[in-house]
Design brief:
Radius of gyration: 38 Å
Shape: elongated
Structural class: alpha+beta
Largest sheet: 7 strands, mixed
Number of strands: 24
Helix content: 40-55%
């Protein structure tokens, strides 16, 4: 297509006008020379020439660039029209901007988490490997046992690189206040497998995986900034981790925190021991041309052979590989897709609202459209003009929405629970998000602008010129009503989802936990093996902390537990029964270790027997306290007190522990409505350091527990200044963090539902108000014939009912189908809960009646004389 520059086109337009005038004069002169009068010749030539505008259009087509020229004309005309109708443009534009902005914000998060490839070279070749038993209560996350990993690393052929890692918590001292950091122990080829290199310094070498040479560390960029002031000279410096000096080899690139959101990395040193194994997280980079099936076969062959040679393979062991991206994203993808669906409904409601406004506006423009048609504009040309105008409106709204989405993304990330949204550092409104906003604007503008445009131009020219605005509007009333019914139905679907999630959150928040959380403050401490190598040293530290806390003003009682309720750590396992009895199969219990006064401090009911006392120490006979479900399951119909259990696989005479008390079950692992069976031991009788190095101190406050947090920090500094606080806060705050994700889901869907409800209310108001305006003449006749104000209000209310009843009906059907998706997010409430559906239907009906109240009151006050004169 040949294009013309604007100034060239203006010159050619002038030449075209002059040429047409010259042809006209020549034709007139020729007729006059044949004897016709000037007026008759002029009239005849005008008839022969026909529509001069059409002649110009045909000529412009021959020039080329006609389509672009018409588009520019349509855009200029549309911009002038929208500028003149400022009220319509403002309302429709803001409605669409909210819908497009919210949609773009959610898309940005979904794209950053789910759609964007991992920031590593050829990320599709990166997988997580697993070879372990299935259908067993002992294993949770995918992984490979340490002894199997050693052989697999040597024998694999399907992978160009493989690497293993394990989570580690470490204490950094000598760089400000002592701090507990999340670290990762990784093999030397870990970073090569991912395809990244340190931004400064170098990575680990293979020989640095061995004991004596593994005192090296890599720092994350955030830790480098916060603790070392971005000092480039940190490379080669010695820092203290867990009381041991480590040489800094390098600093990793900005934003890198894989795995475990680690802040620093150390070499993985394997210490293989009989009858013990460590599950490692193993990643691999598949070789070029290797299929997933071949990779799985390689894992099964090599890892299975390693287990067979060690005599440890079980028939249930299964080889598995998972795309690394899936493991990074986790199960957050389901939540994001639900949010995307919800915001999509908001966008549809906003678009339906804008389409309704366009239909109403077309009614007031029917004469303009008819005149343009009379002047030669075809229906196709008129439809294109109206659609261009609507697309222009949508694009302007999309530009505003893109700006709104920037704040929306920040709000989403701020509302989300800490650490819940992976890859959050990669999320931001970028070119992809802007293109998405433009695409949504163009598509929805064409789709939702086409119906009003087609309906506005379908009336025959004669009828259109003769029709009144009220007659044109009445023909579009059905379409407007259908759009509002659709808005109500979509809004009800969102409200139902928000109602279900809110109920689920409230039931989870008010769940009975088995202990009294109000008034409790907790502080966790992790003791390093360097300073506390023996159980006696750890027990001495814990005893000193408890003594210091118990003598603190404002503390009613203080206790300690190694695996705190709702904490991040817990040991579960089986046990042995005295007398040769066999415990229930696959029956696992939590195995916390506690101090005296723990149950009183926590508010856990003692059902039978006694609590632990200071006399239950290493020199006394071993004792345990069991929870109620253990007593009922293991000794049904019997008295659990005096029974004996052992935590050893092959207990000797001194390994038996006597049950001295029975306490209530508590929610140990989470707020899922389940109480966990548990067997408690006094920490003073434990001989394994592993069970004593992680300890949570619990105090019950006489007044406000948050006032004791500073005192607890001070107590730790007085006992051992070099030990950092792992975590500190009130138990109520811990519970709030546990329900943070359900609260986030309920809030976000609630915001979308509120937007949908507002937009539906605006749509109902607009349709009812317009219906009242177009029936003003009819209302005037009714009033003149004796109709009272109440009769007119009932007339308008019937109109509202005609919109609400089918909308609610369709919405309930849609909600019954859609809310099934929420089943995995709900607790204590079913997706088809009748009370929730009835409640949201009532709320929507109330909003609808409020939206129709103003037009109804206005209709009841119509002056019949004015109404009849207006309709004449």
């Amino acid at each position: 297509m040949r294009l013309s520059l604007p100034w060239n086109r203006r010159r050619r337009e002038g030449e075209l006008d002059e040429e047409l005038r010259a042809h006209f004069r020549m034709a007139v002169d020729e007729r006059v020379s044949r004897g016709e009068s000037y007026d008759a010749a002029t009239y005849a030539v005008r008839r022969e020439f026909g529509n001069v505008g059409v002649v110009k259009e045909v000529t412009r087509e021959m020039w080329g660039g006609g389509s672009l020229e018409r588009l520019m004309q349509d855009l200029r005309y549309g911009a002038r029209t929208l500028r003149r109708s400022r009220g319509f443009t403002l309302v429709a534009g803001l409605t669409l901007a909210v819908g497009i902005g919210a949609t773009t914000a959610v898309f940005t998060v979904v794209h950053g988490v789910l759609l964007r490839p991992l920031p590593y070279p050829e990320p599709n070749r990166l997988v997580l490997l697993s070879y372990q038993p299935k259908n067993t209560p002992w294993v949770s996350a995918p992984g490979i046992a340490d002894r199997t990993w050693v052989e697999f690393r040597r024998g694999t052929r399907a992978f160009a690189h493989v690497a293993a890692s394990s989570a580690q918590l470490v204490t950094l001292t000598g760089a400000g206040d002592p701090v507990r950091l999340q670290g990762a122990a990784v093999t030397a080829d870990f970073f090569a497998t991912l395809g990244i290199a340190p931004a400064r310094g170098r990575s680990f070498s293979v020989d640095e995986e061995t004991a004596g040479r593994n005192g090296v560390v890599l720092l994350g960029s955030a830790l480098w900034r916060e603790r070392f002031g971005s000092d480039p000279g940190v490379v080669g410096r010695t820092i203290t981790l867990d009381g041991v000096g480590h040489t800094v080899l390098g600093v990793l690139p900005e934003g890198f925190a894989y795995p475990y959101e680690a802040q620093l990395w150390r070499p993985l040193e394997l210490r293989l021991a009989p009858n013990l194994y460590l599950m490692l997280s193993v990643i691999g980079r598949m070789r070029d041309g290797v299929t997933r099936e071949q990779a799985v076969a390689d894992v099964a062959s090599v890892a299975g052979g390693a287990e067979r040679s060690a005599g440890g393979e079980r028939e249930t062991s299964v080889a598995e590989i998972l795309p690394l991206k899936d493991t990074v994203v986790g199960d957050v993808g389901r939540s994001l897709l639900v949010f995307a669906g919800a915001v999509g409904l908001v966008l549809l409601i906003a678009c339906a609202n804008a389409a309704n406004l366009l239909l109403m506006r077309a009614t007031s423009r029917h004469r303009e459209i008819a005149v343009r048609a009379a002047l030669g504009a075809g229906r196709r040309r008129l439809v294109r003009q109206l659609v261009t105008e609507s697309v222009l409106l949508w694009v302007v709204a999309g530009a505003i929405g893109a700006a709104v989405s920037v704040a929306g993304v920040r709000g989403l990330l701020a509302l989300a629970p800490a650490g819940r949204i992976p890859r959050h550092g990669e999320i931001g409104v970028d070119v992809v998000a802007l293109v998405f906003a433009l695409g949504v604007s163009l598509v929805t503008g064409v789709v939702f602008g086409l119906v009003p445009a087609v309906r506005a131009t379908r009336t025959p020219l004669r009828a259109s010129l003769a029709a009144t605005p009220r007659g044109i509007s009445s023909r579009d009333g059905g379409v407007r009503g259908a759009l509002v019914v659709a808005e109500i139905a979509l809004a009800l679907v969102l409200l139902a989802g928000a109602g279900l999630l809110t109920q689920s959150f409230l039931r989870m928040r008010h769940l009975e936990l088995g202990f009294q959380s109000t008034g409790l403050a907790t502080m966790t401490v992790d003791l390093p093996a360097t300073g506390y190598a023996s159980t006696s040293a750890m027990q001495t530290f814990h005893a000193r902390m408890l003594d210091r806390l118990r003598h603190t003003p404002g503390v009613e009682s203080a206790a300690a537990i190694n695996f705190s309720p709702l904490g991040s750590a817990l040991v579960r396992g089986d046990f042995k029964l005295d007398g040769g009895r066999t415990p229930p199969r696959d029956y696992l219990v939590a195995k916390p270790s506690v101090s005296p006064e723990y149950f009183r401090t926590m508010g856990i009911r003692l059902l039978r027997g006694r609590e632990f006392t200071e006399r239950d120490d290493a020199a006394s006979p071993g004792v345990v306290i069991v929870s109620r479900s253990v007593a009922d399951r293991v000794w049904p119909g019997m008295n659990a007190l005096g029974q004996r259990v052992s935590m050893k696989d092959r207990p000797g005479p001194g390994d038996w522990l006597t049950v001295v008390g029975v306490v209530d079950d508590i929610a140990q692992r989470g707020l899922d409505g389940k109480r966990d069976p548990a067997i408690y031991q006094p920490y003073a009788q434990l001989a394994q350091p592993f069970f004593l190095e992680h300890m949570t101190f619990v105090v019950r406050a006489a007044d406000r527990p948050e006032m004791l947090l500073g005192v607890m920090r001070q107590a730790l500094r007085e006992v051992d200044r070099s030990q950092p606080v792992g975590s500190i806060g009130t138990m109520d705050a811990t519970i709030a963090m546990t329900v943070a994700e359900p609260l986030f889901q309920a809030r976000l869907i609630g915001v979308f539902s509120a937007l949908a409800l507002l937009l539906a209310g605006i749509g109902i108001y607009g349709v009812v108000a317009y219906s009242v305006a177009e029936r003003t003449h009819e209302i005037g006749i009714r009033v003149a014939l004796g109709a009272a104000g109440g009769d007119i209000v009932r007339l308008v209310v019937r109109r509202v009912l005609m919109l609400v009843v089918p909308g609610v009906g369709l919405g309930i059907v849609g909600a019954l189908a859609v809310t099934r998706v929420l089943a995995t997010f709900l607790f204590g409430v079913k997706p088809n809960d009748p009370a929730t559906f009835a409640g949201v239907a009532a709320v929507l009906a109330a909003v609808a009646f409020l939206a129709g109240l103003v037009p109804a009151r206005r209709a009841s006050r119509v002056d019949p004389l004015v109404a009849l004169r207006a309709g004449a």
